[in-house]
């Protein structure tokens, strides 16, 4: 399998705080990889650095084998990287359909965009029911569906997901994770940051554990699920 994303000694600081202290991780084409850890471990900072939203202090990021050092965020989007941010970041005053179209703003293939929109509505029938409704009036779960759908409209090769289950009711969390599985089955590569470690490891093939800005464990998701250290710290066992 080709390596799609790789970091070498990635370090990120802001406000005088070393949030990420030199980490190595990789995501191969077609994989679903998770990054788990406590609040404040540096997981979201890592994702924001990967998509160009935060500058690196040192180290490098390789995407499709090329350093991203000189690439602004919009260029990474054009190269197939999409982020579903923590807090969803939807456009509250636009309708559901307008939000989805915003996800396809870099594309010119209008007939295929229509097909992709129908596919998103198949994945999330609730969005079809609400397509002319203002996005700001949706429930938290519906907004998360919309954020996922909008990212998928850019036809990503690599989808970065930041805390998709945050603040959602258990039933909605199940629905979101079912869809994440389906997106992975369609061949999209995913890097998932998630506080619900059990759920994250259950859907992933491999996982990294992050503590205080460092990666302390890396293994198959199945091995991490059965690792006593992980069970005690993150799985409540």
What do these coordinates show?
The chain has a domain at 81-155. Strands 6-7-8-3-9-10 form a 6-stranded mixed β-sheet, with helices on both faces. Strands 2-1-4-5 form a 4-stranded antiparallel β-sheet, covered by helices on one side. The model has no long low-confidence stretch (mean pLDDT 95). It is built from 10 helices and 10 strands. α3 (96-103) packs parallel to α6. It is an alpha/beta fold and 237 residues long. It is globular, with a radius of gyration of 17 Å. Helix content is 38%, strand content 27%. It has helices at residues 43-50, 73-78, 96-103, 110-123, 125-129, 140-152, 170-185, 197-203, 221-225, 228-234; strands at residues 3-14, 17-28, 32-36, 58-63, 66-67, 81-84, 158-162, 189-193, 206-211, 214-220.
Entry summary:
By secondary structure, the chain is an alpha/beta fold. It has 10 helices and 10 strands.
Mean pLDDT: 95
Order of helices and strands: EEEHEEHEHHHHEHEHEEHH
- Give the termini separation: 34 Å
Placed side by side, the strands forming the largest sheet appear as: 6-7-8-3-9-10
- Kindly state the number of beta strands: 10
Q: What share of the residues lie within helices? A: 25-40%
Count of alpha/pi helices: 10
Strand content: 25-35%
Keywords:
38% helix, 237 residues, 4-stranded antiparallel beta sheet, alpha/beta, 10 helices, single chain, 10 strands
Question: Topology of this structure?
Answer:
Layout: E1 3-14, E2 17-28, E3 32-36, H1 43-50, E4 58-63, E5 66-67, H2 73-78, E6 81-84, H3 96-103, H4 110-123, H5 125-129, H6 140-152, E7 158-162, H7 170-185, E8 189-193, H8 197-203, E9 206-211, E10 214-220, H9 221-225, H10 228-234
Parallel strand pairs: 3-8, 3-9, 6-7, 7-8
Antiparallel strand pairs: 1-2, 1-4, 4-5, 9-10
């Amino acid at each position: 399998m080709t390596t799609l994303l790789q970091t070498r000694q990635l370090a990120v600081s802001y406000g005088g705080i070393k949030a990420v202290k030199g980490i190595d991780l990789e995501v191969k084409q077609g994989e679903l990889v998770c990054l788990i850890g406590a609040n404040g471990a540096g997981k979201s900072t890592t994702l924001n650095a990967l998509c160009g939203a935060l500058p690196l202090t040192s180290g490098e990021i390789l995407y499709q084998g090329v350093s991203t050092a000189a690439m602004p965020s919009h260029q990474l989007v054009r190269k197939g990287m999409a982020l579903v941010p923590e807090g969803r970041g939807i456009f509250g005053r636009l309708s559901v359909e307008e939000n989805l179209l915003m996800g396809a703003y870099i594309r010119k293939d209008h007939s295929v965009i229509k097909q992709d929109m129908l596919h998103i509505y198949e994945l999330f029938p609730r969005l079809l029911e609400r397509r002319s409704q203002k996005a700001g009036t949706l429930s938290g779960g519906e907004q998360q569906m919309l954020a996922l759908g909008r990212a998928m409209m850019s036809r990503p090769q690599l989808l970065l997901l930041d805390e998709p289950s945050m603040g959602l009711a258990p039933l909605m969390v199940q629905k979101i994770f079912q869809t994440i599985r389906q997106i992975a089955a369609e061949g999209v590569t995913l890097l998932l940051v998630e506080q619900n470690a059990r759920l994250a490891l259950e859907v992933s093939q491999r996982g990294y554990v992050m503590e205080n800005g460092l990666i302390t464990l890396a293994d198959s998701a199945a091995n991490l699920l059965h690792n006593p250290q992980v069970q005690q710290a993150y799985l409540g066992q």
